[in-house]
Amino acid sequence: MLFKKIILVFIFAFSSAILFSQKDSTAVKDVKVKGRFTKNKKGVYNPLAPSKAAFYSAIFPGMGQIYNRKYWKAPIVWGAIGTSIYYYLDSNSEYKRYRRAYKLRKQGLQDEFTLDNGTEIASLATLERAQEQLKENRDMSLLSATILYVLQIVEASVNAHLLQFNTDDNLTFKPTLVQDPIQFDAPKVGLTIKYTF
């Protein structure tokens, strides 16, 4: 039992030494480049870019995507949120129409679903079911518009974070075809890993 505890202490000590020996890549002295980004030894880095992108997206949907220079994403955001808002407004107006007819019918007055001769096109139960369905559709459209609004803010922020990653060829994964000198007829597929410090 004592031997297991000693091994556990050594593993903890070695793993914590490895964790504390890493350098912070953002602690390198920064130099201004064109006012928007800062350049350090590792490359271009702007710590405020994700928060700016999220702020712009919160003010006006799609502006965070434009700030990140992903112009093609802005019409997708506008279309998605606009479609949800359209269906919300349409369901809300239809709900009010059926609600008004239901209230008039309950009071014994003529509504738009009653003909002049007193024949009812839609029964009271039908008006009630239509109200419930339209209210549910309206609420789902509002919920989807809200979710899309929040998602586009998160997407702009995450995209601004990911734009700052160093993606040079020092670390690459490339599938390659390797010819076997003994068997020429069957090429072999391999994976080359290149990692430089």
UniProtKB/TrEMBL annotation:
InterPro entries: DUF5683. Keywords: Signal. Residues 47-197 form the DUF5683 domain. Residues 1-20 form the signal peptide. Pfam families: DUF5683. This is DUF5683 domain-containing protein. It comes from Polaribacter aquimarinus. The lineage of its organism: Bacteria, Pseudomonadati, Bacteroidota, Flavobacteriia, Flavobacteriales.
